[in-house]
Design a protein that fits this description.
Layout: E1 2-7, H1 24-39, E2 46-49, H2 59-69, E3 73-80, E4 92-96, H3 102-119, E5 123-128, H4 132-135, E6 140-148, H5 152-159, H6 161-179
Parallel strand pairs: 1-2, 1-3, 3-6, 4-5
Antiparallel strand pairs: 4-6
Helix pairs in contact: 1-6, 3-6
Length: about 180
Amino acid sequence: MKIMLDAGHGYNTTGKRSPNGMREYEFNKAVANHARGLLECYRNVTVYFAHSDERDVTLRERTKSANHLDVDLYISIHANAFGGGWSDAGGIETYIYLSKPPRAYALAQKIQRNAIAATGLRNRGVKTADFHVLRETIMDAVLVEAGFMTNPDESKLLRSESYRKKIAGAIVAAIVEQYGLVREG
């Protein structure tokens, strides 16, 4: 199985940071790295990254790469935001594109369930959206908003390695369950 992990945005993407300066990409990249490490323990799994540490990769490049590589699954990892300063908006939500197959919705439900169980954050549900990475990919695609960087409490979590590992674990456990992956050895 070929899986593309997308640490949403890029290090230099403007405006994608918490009021106290944490860049969203730092969280997204850490979760993608943890998820890759977990996924590499399964048979017949190849993991690709849509993002790059060297430059900000456009949305078009990300989806074109996923489609060209003919990956089976595209997971986009994000931290949410509300407004320009601190707010009390919080929780986790997971997105799919409206016309994606039922298995994409089933995977999104599993990711959402696992993430809420692992973190105890507010369940904002599984939703549909017209996001480029969901619309322009030809495989199952899910986008996870794993907490609000504009919520003071959640911003602290987003900076913590244990929280990042919980989100990665929630995503990977859902993939394993959905696609019946088998551990190496």
